């Protein structure tokens, strides 16, 4: 993983408040925008959490990271639905 432990910790802390059973159930039911277009529910959930946390916590420093690196971090934080 190319992401630093600090990046992972910051993302995990920002995601924790919104990665709750209520939101997990909502996604399982398909109760989110454009659910009918979603091909990979777990990936969609991880990235929706990430973008929400990114907006609330401020922009994460992703220099040197690509989407695959960020998704590896997200998979280590967010359990599959």
Characterization of this structure:
The chain has four helices and no strands. The model has no long low-confidence stretch (mean pLDDT 95). The protein has one domain (5-77). Helix content is 59%, strand content 0%. The chain is mainly α and 81 residues long.
Quick rundown:
The chain has 81 residues and is mainly alpha-helical. It has helices spanning 5-15, 21-29, 41-57, 67-77.
Low-pLDDT runs = none
Shape: globular
Radius of gyration: 13 Å
**Quaternary organisation of the protein chains:** single chain
Beta-strand portion reads: under 5%
The number of distinct structural domains comes to 1
Number of helices: 4
Task: State the total count of DSSP E strands.
Answer: 0
Mean pLDDT level: 95
Mind describing the biggest β-sheet? none
Helix/strand-derived category reads mainly alpha
Helical residues, percent: 55-70%
The SSE order reads HHHH
The N- to C-terminal Cα distance equals: 23 Å
Secondary-structure blueprint of this entry?
Layout (H helix, E strand, L loop, with lengths): L4 H11 L5 H9 L11 H17 L9 H11 L4
Task: Provide tags for this entry.
single chain, 81 residues, mainly alpha, 59% helix, 0% strand, globular
